[in-house]
Write a structure and sequence with these properties.
Layout lengths: L1 H31 L2 H89 L2 E5 L2 E5 L1 H15 L3 H14 L6 H14 L3 H14 L6 H14 L3 H14 L4 H13 L1
Antiparallel strand pairs: 1-2
Length: about 260
């Protein structure tokens, strides 16, 4: 644009100079030539001036057209820049959305894996230590046994009997069986159901003679017999306990009770 303006200024300067020169020549010619020659000179000068005006007008039109093209070019460039900005903003928004979706997908995947791990853990057998023995039990067995034992520990012996009986019926091969029989017998003893208590204590001793609870089960049988006034049977049970499990705490208690018989 600056070059175009300079070109226009230069053309206007040449026009002014030409007009000034024509005026001077006209005055000079008026004094040097006759009227005919003066007229020819004036006509020629006018023709030259007309040609010059046409050239100037053409330059102005060309300059105007060039300026319009430049302005149109700038407008087109601005429009293109706006389109680019819009596309960039759109892509940025899509990128942010993709980042959010990826983060959400990763979170769901993590939650899914944790949920799957939890379900697997619930299905996998559990290794436990019970009554001095290491056992492998199902998760459902562990849950139900602990629930039944919690009821016994609340001294709700009537309900404890029900849940232990139900437990043994639902899990006949459970590794918890000796311990469940022991606590069932104790719940029955607490409710003075001595006969059924002795049945369950004997079942424990028969199934697992070397079970850590076996000496206590034998002592509990003797207690049931004493409650039932069967002192002879109680004495025999205590003597067998001392012989079979001499180093147990139950055997020490049996010796004290045998001493009382004497």
């Amino acid at each position: 644009m600056s070059s175009l303006l300079l070109s226009c200024n230069s053309q206007w300067f040449r026009v002014a100079a030409a007009l000034l020169l024509s005026a001077i020549v006209s005055n000079v010619n008026a004094g040097l030539f006759d009227d005919e020659e003066a007229r020819r000179a004036i006509l020629e000068l006018r023709q030259n001036n007309a040609d010059l005006h046409q050239q100037i007008a053409a330059e102005i039109r060309r300059s105007t057209d060039d300026g319009a093209q430049v302005r149109q070019g700038l407008l087109d460039l601005q429009n293109q820049l706006e389109i680019v900005r819009t596309e960039v903003a759109k892509l940025r928004g899509q990128g942010e959305q993709m980042v959010r979706e990826l983060a959400e997908a990763q979170r769901l995947q993590k939650d899914g894996m944790q949920s799957t791990d939890e379900r697997i853990r619930k299905l996998e057998p559990a290794r436990i230590s019970l009554d001095g023995r290491d056992l492998l039990v199902e998760q459902s067995e562990k849950r139900d046994y602990e629930s039944a034992l919690a009821i016994f520990r609340k001294s709700d012996f009537s309900n404890a009997q029900l849940v232990f009986v139900d437990f043994l019926n639902r899990y006949p091969q459970t590794a918890y069986r000796p311990s469940a029989l022991f606590w069932l017998g104790n719940a029955q003893y607490a409710t003075k159901d001595y006969k059924d208590a002795m049945v369950n204590f004997r079942s424990l001793m028969t199934a697992v003679p070397d079970h850590p609870r076996a000496p206590e089960a034998a002592l509990a049988i003797a207690n049931c017999q004493l409650e039932m006034k069967d002192n002879k049977a109680a004495r025999k049970t205590l003597e067998d306990l001392v012989v079979k499990h001499p180093n147990s705490e139950a055997a020490a208690a049996a010796r004290d009770r045998l001493a009382r018989f004497k």
